[in-house]
Each structure stands twice: as C-alpha cells, then as structure tokens.
Design goal:
Blueprint lengths: L17 E8 L4 E7 L9 E5 L6 E4 L3 H10 L22 H5 L5
Antiparallel strand pairs: 1-2, 2-3, 3-4
Length: 105
C-alpha cells in the first residue's frame, strides 16, 4: 500500500509500526488489521479498519475480541459499521490462506 503512494494512517507513522491483517470483508474489500507497535505485546495490539478501495482508515483503541463484541452488540462507534438497518446476514469464517491464497515464503 505504501509503495503505491497511499498515506499511512496516524498509528502507522511510528518507526517499526506494522499493520497485520486478520479479517476481510467480502464485497467491500475492507480489511481489519492489528496495529503492531514496537515493544507492545499481542494482547496490547489495537484494531485498524481500512475501507479497502480507498484511503480511509479508522482506529479503534481496543483489542480484537472487544472490537468484535462491540460490533456484534451494536455498541461500536464507527463510520463504517452499525448504521445498517438491514436484516442480519449469515457470516462465515475462513482462514487468511483460503481468502488471500498461499502465504509468500
């Protein structure tokens, strides 16, 4: 993303910061990432959302489980989630390898 000229979100400007993908929203192309910062343990990583087909990012100062709980309970403050009034849809979970293909070696 960064080589293509997209601007880094504020959380990724620190030296050594990384975005580690953990979820993909089929259809929109959106991704959820863990914000990995130097010196932080995995249980301290927070959530970043990228709209997938554009430059917009959203930072959530919570871990993955808290994020999913807030999303599913309707308490998440987000410009991207929670505004739909449509009936619930079926969800499925697949591994990253199944969605993105075999990892590079």
């Amino acid at each position: 993303m960064w080589e293509a000229g997209e601007a880094r979100p504020a959380g990724l400007t620190e030296a050594g910061a990384r975005a580690l993908p953990w979820a993909f929203e089929e259809g929109s192309g959106a991704f959820l990432y863990w914000l990995v910062l130097p010196g932080r343990r995995p249980d301290e990583w927070t959530v970043l959302y990228n709209e997938g087909r554009g430059p917009l990012w959203e930072d959530h100062d919570m871990g993955c489980v808290a994020f999913l709980e807030a999303l599913l309970c309707g308490t998440l403050q987000s410009a991207y989630f929670g505004d739909e009034e449509a009936a619930p849809v079926a969800h499925r979970f697949e591994t990253a390898d199944a969605v993105l293909g075999e990892p590079r070696r």
